[in-house]
């Protein structure tokens, strides 16, 4: 039966129809792609603004639907979808928007019974997935949205804090009380326990009582002293006052505020003491006045948790799927309103940056392709949006998501699974991720395979339902928008949220999208590449079709709910690698409709793809290749096992600047050796020195070779005590080592059983997955170590095409240098501040990554079919175009935020059923209070009164790490060492007051006595230790003997030397200076530390000189010098066809002083120092002369050896790197 309506207009064009059936047929034929959610039958009357999504919304936020041209007679409006019903029975729910009785709604010409009811509405019954589509249920995203609405998870949501405990004001209103609150909630990272809070209250209360009593005692003593000193004068003053007429009252009455001239100081003191005694009797401290007892103080802190959580609108719902799981969450739109209300600077419009030559540049999400495409879609739909009878400005609110599980307890029993969001439109200069939910963690009850499969599917289903609950208002708002108040705009703007990034590792990415994690034919989430063709040479595979895959997942879920078996599910799956799970993100407009960017929002995770993925694979392949090459023989300088250990031992001689891991067995280990768990930061800084670790080692020993060869005898069990024989054996053709160097020879000998070519039995090395590296629950390990390394033939055509006639050890060094250079480009090492990606630079970087993976690695190590290698080779340029940078998708920032959760977990009861809410309460309360206190301080700084519930002002809480004081002499002078400070005198803190640091005390006294107006010369305090010049001359065999002539001192004088010196480094690739520290000490943190520096020398204009700092002189006999004593170096002859030289490393040698036999010295002023430089020994040269065990610690320190020593500068060392703080942006809305 059709409902008749006169002239029903089409909501998408100007056509009108007499019956709704005609309108339905018209929309199905011409506008099916534009239908979003349940569009009701058109109604007569004026245009009505739809109700807000979610019952009980007190903020007055409405959804606005705009389709085509709008006018006063348009009758299109989205339906009001209820979140939950307050009625106890279905028949008590008002489904018509008016009275619950049958009839016609007031002001509406359509009967209540004719209203279209969305499945999942509060007045609709629970339902399962139905593939029957009505014309008004149009798109796939609408069906996904209603599927999750039908689960009823939103209807079961309730506030985390009960209503009776909400709305209570805070008692911490003063700065003192806020400081006490912060101390109690943040001490130790977890805050004080209840007992510690009570003890803390008692201590502070006792201190306040003692302070009050002490003040009263002081006042009484002052009163007694005043009375005693004025006995002889009080009577005389009384007699004189009685002789004359009493006119004091008459003279002082008219002007009480003005003090009479006859009132003496003694009278004023007596009056002040009397007032102080009257006010101190009942005085209390700030803590005891606010909280009379310790119990009240402890209870108030619990009340602060309730207040903060209620203000943040935390809720809890029960996800029912066989069992009930608690999901704690905040509505994303509520979080967005609060974040934008507190923001200080926002950017509402994206902008395409174009250079003068027409090339496009990208730097952030707001000028990326994904955002600009979705922004164009938003502006097209909402170009004529109206709110309150006035046009409203619309903008695309970019939202970034992150989710990942993290291990909390050492025994692996407790996990936390947070979901965080970020809003790139808020310009803060740093990553600000806000926690919006904690997904319940589901565990297997047994080790049965069927149970694991069931729990795996249940985890994915529960996760998608949790994500749908978070986005209950977000999904409709992505189509219709929500009015929002933002800074810089006088009127509300229409915020249309769009997802531009989902930062996750590869297992989490597959879970969110509903793809198989293991055993899949299509391992990539972005394209349809096959498993055996991933990371292989050839054209790029076709992209995945969003709607096609979502339809397959809908079919699979429907079949699963109907009881279909594995055969039917496998038939639906085909080769798409889907699982019967519907991704909730597909319901978001822009992801499942319009531009369909669902698969594009998942970014290139630098942490798991490059650091924990590609670098780890290369580190495993290098020793495997060495073993394959040397099968049946020896390596170039010894056995395979000794070579691998010596290769990892080199990292200990690369100086103190590196941030790589020094934990044995190192980075490059054989299969069967358990490797230490290394963090992403350690892998990232390890690749910086790998080239110098492998230099000259990876290759077989050729017959007739005269290179030194170290082969130790296999040791048996020792039966007698005595010195260990052969601990420092002599290399063939080399020099015996000395007793220094800290070599791990014990480990080398204990693991030397592989000197023969028989492989060690597998002792269960860790799989190359994300498991154990970042405490995730990812189960998608890719066992690349099981793939045999091919024996790369130096005579093969593919090898000659890439490496020509180079030997194998040079080819391996070349590939490792390629990896280090590529890693530096991906991290933005040593690049200008505002460096942006252009189309040409992005394509060039993609080609370099493709050649590295598909050509060099494939030829040298064999093809590696992993998703991480494939992502690097084929999808790097997509990330640059879709994100504008390689920083925002990096999960390192969120992995670092997990540390706070782990700290808060220590303060819980560790019970599986309750620790999550305890951890949530502590962590979110502290976060809210920190933001609240920063807001109050920022308002006070600009002269505004602090407000507890202010949402229209957000402080800029970023604080500079260093505050540079203006220079006194107008010159760029150093701040001094790490322990330097400023003072008015020239003495050290640890020196006696003997005037040794005062240059001319007599002259200074005469100057001060002669003219007080003359400016006194200000001197900075010089810290350091006082050393006699005579001791320095004979120290270290006379290495610093030239110091007397360089500084113009004699052996009777004393120097003030320091371990470090701060200076402003001049970087050739940046305009701004960078603070660095020069360190030169024999013992600094239990080891020697001598930094290499680049400095300017007048004898070599325009050519920076290089050398290690040996001594930092701050003063000579109290006179400030700030001079660095440097050992001089000069360029050395480069090795023939040197790989390191091709990549930019420079070779140097010592300039030897003929009289001392040590390197020549130079005195360099601190202002002439340009920057630090990382310098490493030429280990290939050392191996050629001293064999496998030749290191700077084992070779003799003789004049002849110093003449032959060679060093390389490290071109790969990251002095500056890209970060979220340095992303360029105009900040204009």
From TrEMBL:
Residue spans of biased composition, Basic residues class: 256-267, 714-727, 1003-1020
Residue ranges with Low complexity bias: 227-255
Domain C2H2-type: 8-36
Swiss-Prot/TrEMBL keywords: Metal-binding, Zinc, Zinc-finger
Basic and acidic residues: bias regions: 969-978
Compositionally biased intervals (Gly residues): 731-740
Region (Disordered): 226-267, 709-792, 959-1020
A GO term, aspect molecular function: zinc ion binding
Keyword Zinc-finger listed: yes
InterPro entries (alphabetical): Plavaka, Znf_C2H2_type
The keyword Chloroplast appears for this protein: no
Pfam families: Plavaka
Stated name of the protein: C2H2-type domain-containing protein
